[in-house]
């Protein structure tokens, strides 16, 4: 085969699962080395990898990195080469469509309950070293931090920066050096100049958007929006509408909607009145839904052209094509 494009390139589940295990073990190795180092400097330290870190690793590696297209069930899609923007998969657009039907662009609605419920995680509650530090005197705590990270808060006066040699000699850096580099997923691009990949991606992107077929797709997108009663940029239309409403109600220039409302319904309701806010929210939902609905065909054309021009790029860059053709 000439090479693999984004439609066939995948990150095998087996390797992702192995990466989850390897990366968590890497963090645990660091913690073990920190404990050994701190003990050598007279401090107790309990090796501890937070649940937040573990969850982040699992999230990072247990999701496909690119779409594996298997008919209509595909969820993930990405261009083969890095580029400034890409259309995403059909399933991703469908998810955005569903969200738009609930909260539009998210400009005049409260945060969704699931998002609003997210609070910063306090890892000190689960970190056994928090209790150890609380048991220290102020002077002992300063020495603890100097041993762990190379400086204590009291060492900094707003002008002085932490000493490089002190940080390098601290247990955190010592442990990281002993643990070695973080495990990395192997990719077909290993050993290929990253700058070159970005350059190719830029060339593909420019070629796609200079293609007359994209102009035709854009004309159809704008016509679709007009049929729904919206201009070519529905998002800007809603932002301008909300800003104008707030400005009229307050008789002052509010800057931007976001700055004045914090995306809170209660703030807008207080300024505009609940009945008017509900009317504007309905308009926002309509505009957002139309924007996504009218982007499906445009995105389909863009994905097809990206794949087409990527194939041309692979022919022009046979070493990259050869790398991609290797199963791994």
Envelope shape: flat
Helix content: 55-70%
Please give the count of helices: 16
Strand count, sense and closure of the main sheet? none
Query: Mean pLDDT across all residues, rounded?
Result: 79
Number of strands: 0
Account of the protein in words:
The protein contains 16 helices and no strands. By secondary structure, the protein is mainly α. α1 packs antiparallel against α2 (51-61) and α13 (265-272) packs across α14.
Layout of helices and strands:
Elements: H1 13-40, H2 51-61, H3 90-103, H4 113-116, H5 128-134, H6 138-149, H7 164-169, H8 171-179, H9 194-210, H10 212-228, H11 234-250, H12 257-261, H13 265-272, H14 274-293, H15 296-316, H16 318-324
Brief overview:
The protein is 62% helix and 0% strand.
Key attributes of the depicted protein:
disordered N terminus; 328 residues
């Amino acid at each position: 085969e000439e090479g693999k494009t984004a439609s066939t390139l995948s990150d095998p589940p087996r390797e992702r699962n192995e990466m989850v295990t390897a990366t968590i073990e890497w963090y645990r190795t660091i913690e073990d080395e920190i404990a050994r180092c701190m003990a050598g400097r007279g401090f107790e330290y309990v090796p501890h990898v937070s649940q937040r870190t573990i969850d982040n690793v699992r999230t990072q590696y247990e999701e496909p990195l690119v779409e594996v297209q298997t008919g209509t069930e595909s969820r993930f899609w990405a261009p083969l080469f890095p580029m400034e923007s890409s259309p995403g998969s059909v399933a991703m657009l469908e998810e955005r469509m569903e969200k738009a039907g609930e909260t539009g662009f998210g400009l005049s609605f409260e945060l969704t309950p699931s998002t609003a419920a997210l609070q910063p995680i306090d890892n000190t509650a689960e970190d056994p070293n928090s209790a150890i530090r609380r048991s220290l005197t102020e002077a002992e705590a300063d020495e603890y931090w100097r041993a762990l990270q190379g400086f204590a808060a009291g060492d900094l006066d707003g002008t002085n920066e932490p000493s490089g040699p002190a940080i390098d000699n601290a247990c955190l850096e010592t442990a990281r050096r002993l643990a070695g580099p973080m495990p990395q997923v192997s990719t077909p691009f290993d050993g290929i100049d990253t700058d070159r990949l970005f350059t190719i991606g830029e060339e593909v992107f420019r070629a796609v958007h200079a293609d007359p077929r994209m102009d035709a797709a854009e004309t159809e997108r704008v016509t679709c929006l007009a049929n729904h009663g919206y201009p070519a940029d529905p998002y800007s239309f809603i932002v301008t509408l909300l800003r104008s409403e707030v400005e009229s109600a307050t008789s002052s220039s509010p800057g931007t909607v976001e700055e004045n409302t914090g995306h809170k319904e209660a703030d807008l309701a207080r300024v505009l009145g609940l009945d008017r806010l509900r009317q504007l929210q309905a308009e926002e939902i309509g505009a957002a839904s139309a924007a996504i609905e009218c982007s499906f065909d445009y995105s389909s054309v863009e994905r097809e052209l990206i794949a087409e021009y990527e194939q041309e790029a692979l022919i022009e860059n046979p070493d990259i094509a050869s790398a991609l053709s290797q199963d791994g």
